[in-house]
Specification:
Distance between the termini: 112 Å
Strand content: 5-15%
Structural class: alpha/beta
Shape: elongated
Length: 656
């Protein structure tokens, strides 16, 4: 941009033209009393001089214009150089300039409406960050409680207010750190919500992150592949949106707190919230959500995970010691299983079969006739039976923890315990049966991979999904109906056995989400390879994970299905003195068990030989199909040592 010219005329130097004009004027002045005559030559000369002067002035103007243009070009070049220098200063300088400008505008006194609008935006930004830190979904929580100030967000506000008061700018690394911390807390809270709602446990990054693929497989049981793919994209978009919104909210808070009057308003709002929350009574079940007048901090949970990671080696050592002690204890017990007298033993684990079937009214009402008929029919067939309870190490899922506990006598409470147990390979129940002359068989229809863990359990024959040869449809999470599994194993193993059998079944038709239930096939000869199920009606329920609020009826029907199938099987195919043990692996999720956190599962023992049932009665089991009314029960890890003691002869004394 050119600068405006101050004047377009070039000034003459003093003593040039002015002197000349003064001399000419003196020479041409008339003498006193003499009349001045006009002179044509003088007039012409004057005209020529005037023309020359005009030409000189024009030349002077052109020269002035050229000089001005040159000056303007030089100024433009200087300005361009300055602009380049400013651009080369970097984004940080520009951002600091913008921050200072925005902070200056925010610090300027606001009118009533402007102040109210700025305060509402500030409150909204703080509420967003509070929700990120506080929400426990899918855990049960009070409505909108998560909008209350969190202890952690209150600390962030305090630090930002102090920095604003001291006129210290917030560095970029600090913003990035806060946003990263918020994202970490959100993932931890969501993990706590999943583990707390469905497994009555807290999320552990070390042990639970590896279970994500199993969670995806579970989702696939009730969702189509395109829903999973779209859901995955939405999750990524949600994470990106969360990061953006947290950063935006943080900037809004910074701008608001740049005015000292706003700091006073923010402090007053936090004080009111603290006072109201601290003086409000909360439900005992939600007490851990609050810390006096604020929402509870996430730092203890982060610290818990960090300390777990830090102390993993020590925990492995301690758990290894527990395994050694259990091994020593079992080695001192009699273990020949001679009192079984070669009777077949069928250990049947029913998925998600918990004590809720006997204590929660909706299930009691739905199954009362079932257990009565089951007991009456089998009693007529000459069966004796008794029922007890065991406390499972897991709740709502992770059945393999219960299986490992039952088979080894070592309590397995989480994935770390399970991994240590798998690596140490203690002596499992199948080993004791093999040494007693039994053929050992495990049946796990939902195991879709021939995993090496079969070697750990030491079963001679393993029937996983592929080995069962099923040709029918899947039923939600269950890859095949339990009736097919019982029929297949009977044809392949029981009908052809030449030595005593120990068979461990893992039935899966009662596995969540209970959205599809197979029909009972009256004629077992029609089952074959399972292709018949393509032609049979499937009972479906509108259930999708994670919404199990209306799944109580479907869950109850899945248990009824299993016991109807077991009743038909025992009545038709178990005609000898085999010992049948039917038990649950864990309680179902809270939504279908009356929000009970009871870990106990029922255990039914049946045999046509009453001598095989009597040891269980001696241990407190109650005759019949209903468990005793007692609030106490032993852990599932006690099953193996008790079984060895009850069905083995006394160990001969050691020779000196």
């Amino acid at each position: 941009m050119k600068k405006p010219h101050a004047s377009k005329k070039k000034l003459d130097a003093p003593g040039d033209d002015d002197t000349r004009h003064e001399t000419d004027a003196e020479e041409s002045a008339p003498e006193p009393g003499e009349r001045e005559e006009p002179d044509a030559d003088d007039d012409g000369a004057d005209d020529d001089d005037a023309d020359d002067d005009d030409a000189d002035d024009a030349d002077d103007d052109d020269e002035a214009d050229d000089d001005a243009d040159n000056d303007d070009d030089e100024a433009d070049d200087d300005e361009a150089d300055d602009d380049r220098d400013e651009r080369e200063d970097g984004d940080s300088v520009e951002e600091e300039g913008r921050d200072d400008s925005e902070a200056s505008r925010a610090a300027a006194p606001l009118g009533g409406l402007q102040l109210a609008r700025a305060t509402l935006l500030f409150v909204g930004a703080v509420a967003l960050l509070d929700a990120v830190v506080n929400v426990r979904y899918p855990l049960d929580e009070p409505a909108f409680w998560y909008l209350l100030p969190s202890t952690d967000i209150a600390a962030v506000l305090l630090n930002l207010a102090i920095m604003s008061w001291l006129r210290s700018p917030v560095p970029r690394w600090m913003r990035v750190g806060i946003v990263a911390w918020l994202l970490l807390v959100r993932l931890l809270r969501f993990g706590d919500g999943i583990k707390g709602r469905y497994f009555a446990q807290r999320f552990n990054a070390y042990t639970d992150l590896g279970l994500i693929p199993d969670g995806i497989r579970f989702l696939n049981a009730s969702r189509s592949w395109w829903e999973l793919f779209g859901g995955g994209l939405l999750v990524l978009a949600a994470i990106a949106g969360l990061v953006f919104c947290c950063h935006l909210a943080l900037r809004r808070i910074e701008l608001y707190l740049s005015a000292r009057r706003h700091i006073a308003i923010a402090a007053a709002l936090c004080g009111v919230c603290y006072f109201v929350t601290a003086n409000t009574k909360h439900s005992p079940r939600h007490a851990d959500l609050f810390a006096q007048g604020f929402a509870a901090s996430a730092l203890p949970r982060l610290q818990e995970n960090f300390l777990f990671l830090w102390g993993v080696r020590g925990q492995k050592s301690a758990y290894g010691q527990l395994i050694n002690e259990t091994e020593t204890m079992l080695a001192d017990l009699p273990s020949d299983l001679a009192k079984l007298h070669g009777a077949n033993v069928y250990l049947i684990l029913v998925e998600s079969y918990g004590l809720t079937m006997f204590v929660w009214p909706p299930h009691i009402e739905a199954t009362s006739k079932l257990y009565d008929v089951f007991e009456q029919e089998l009693t007529k067939q000459g069966f004796s039976m008794a029922t007890g309870m065991l406390a499972s190490p897991t709740y709502g899922g992770q059945s393999w923890l219960a299986h490992a506990t039952l088979d080894t006598g070592v309590p397995v409470h989480d994935q770390l315990d399970y991994e240590i147990l798998s690596s140490r390979k203690p002596r499992p129940i199948a080993t004791y049966f093999r040494r007693a002359g039994y053929r050992t068989v495990v049946v796990q229809p939902n195991s879709t991979r021939d995993w090496a863990i079969g070697d750990f359990y030491d079963f001679e024959q393993k029937y996983y999904n592929r080995q069962l040869g099923y040709r029918g449809p899947a039923f939600a999470w269950a890859t095949m109906p339990d009736q097919f599994v019982l029929d297949f194993v009977h044809r392949k193993e029981i009908a052809q056995h030449k030595q005593p059998l120990f068979i461990q079944y893992v039935l899966v038709s009662s596995h969540a989400p209970w959205s599809a239930l197979p029909p009972v096939v009256e004629d077992w000869n029609r089952i074959g390879d399972g292709s018949i199920y393509h032609r049979l009606p499937i009972e479906r329920f509108p259930i999708e994970w994670p919404n199990f609020e209306h799944a109580t009826g479907a869950y109850g029907k899945s248990i009824i299905y299993d016991f109807e199938v077991l009743l038909r099987y025992l009545r038709s195919f178990v005609d000898d003195g085999s010992l049948v043990i039917i038990l649950g692996d864990h309680q179902p999720v809270a939504e279908v068990n009356g929000d009970s956190w009871d870990y106990r599962v029922p255990v039914h023992v049946l045999s046509r030989n009453p001598e095989l049932v009597r040891p269980f009665v001696s241990r407190g089991y109650q005759p019949g199909m209903r468990p005793p009314d007692s609030p106490f029960s032993q852990g599932m890890e006690t099953f193996l040592p008790s079984f060895l003691v009850d069905f083995s002869t006394e160990r001969p004394p050691a020779s000196p």
